[in-house]
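User: Here's a structure from my thesis project, written as structure tokens. My advisor, Dr. K., wants to see whether a designed sequence matches the one we expressed. Can you design one independently, without my sequence as a hint?
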């Protein structure tokens, strides 16, 4: 009888030893896997922005929100697909260099920094802009932005020339992914509607592509 108990106990230990560490080994394998670099970037943005009050010098600007598409990467945790389920967010801050008047148009030039975050908590909330920068940075880029604002319709378009200054791999599915490489350039275009004085100062959607 005692021998049978010993054999059963040994069998239990053997089973636990064989099955227990497996998930950790799989996680280690994912972490050690070489990242798949996505050089041909294609991103889609949904966001809002806030400008500094009139009279503030230098004038500043922030825009923030979430990515609704990244080529080759799942970007939502669940439905509905909005800020409350987005796995990737962004936050940008900029300084206004100049404003040129051209009839009803205002042509605004800014320079700044854009950061894209991976945020598995999916806690985005437009009423709390800082929730769009509480994840882990996966891409940082410097940009020059031109805004063409129509003061009659209150609509606007923007164009950004962006250069990646930092990018780091992240886990996606069964492997790792890296967005672009340092020194790579990409272009961003937004269109939207102003809501001055806000908050927010306005709403926008747009996209980015390599080049």
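Assistant: Designed independently from the structure alone:
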């Amino acid at each position: 009888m005692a021998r049978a108990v010993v054999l059963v106990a040994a069998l239990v230990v053997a089973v636990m030893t064989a099955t227990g560490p497996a998930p950790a080994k799989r996680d280690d394998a994912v972490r050690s896997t070489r990242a798949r670099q996505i050089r041909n970037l294609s991103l889609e943005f949904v966001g809002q922005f806030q400008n500094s009050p009139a009279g503030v010098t230098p004038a500043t600007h922030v825009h923030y929100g979430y990515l609704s598409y990244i080529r080759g990467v799942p970007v939502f945790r669940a439905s509905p697909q909005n800020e409350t389920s987005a796995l990737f967010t962004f936050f940008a801050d900029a300084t206004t260099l100049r404003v040129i008047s051209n009839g009803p148009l205002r042509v605004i030039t800014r320079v700044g920094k854009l950061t894209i975050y991976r945020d598995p908590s999916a806690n985005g909330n437009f009423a709390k802009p800082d929730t769009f920068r509480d994840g882990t940075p996966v891409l940082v880029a410097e940009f020059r932005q031109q805004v063409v604002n129509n003061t009659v319709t209150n609509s606007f378009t923007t164009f950004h020339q962006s250069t990646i200054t930092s990018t780091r791999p992240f886990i996606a599915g069964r492997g790792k992914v890296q967005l672009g490489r340092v020194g790579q350039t990409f272009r961003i275009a937004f269109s939207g509607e102003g809501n001055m004085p806000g908050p927010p100062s306005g709403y926008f959607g747009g996209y980015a592509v390599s080049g």
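When you compare it with your expressed construct, this may help: Residues 1-30 have pLDDT under 50 and may be disordered.
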